[in-house]
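Tutorial, part two.
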Amino acid sequence: MLSEKLTQELCDQVRFEYYSAYLYLGLSAQLDRMSYYGMSSWLRLQATEEVTHGSKIFDYLLRRDKPVELGPIDQPPMNFASPLKAFEAALAHEQKVSVRIDKLAQQAEADHDYMTGSFLEWFLDEQVEEERTVRQIVDRLKLAGDSVQSLFMIDADLAKRNA
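Running the prediction step on this input gives:
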């Protein structure tokens, strides 16, 4: 059975996933203004993916006949001086998401809620991939340093991401 505590934590995670989308939209806008249109596009697609994650949890709660409480979404930080700083913020955020998903899985296990545990496995696997992908971008940006040519090559590569 899905406990009240886990239900509330899942509702909080819905809000956090939408916050993630909001953060990525902000980063996208900032990089667009810096003329890094490929990075901006990548982050815009990431924002859409985060909405999908929040919707999956939302739908799960409804399928389990649980009340869904939607709280306010905080304003994300919007002042990053470079693509590297923006993607470092994205990586730090993904690491926070990973901790949150892990705690949800721990709570499901403590509650002996194997259905929710099974549901959360997808998110656990997804977070491994999310962190890895953003970490690789950060690593590439660090290698590029201040080289405008390298930054635009990375930008062009990130523009290839499909929805």
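DSSP finds five helices and no strands in the chain. In part three we will examine how such features are distributed along the chain.
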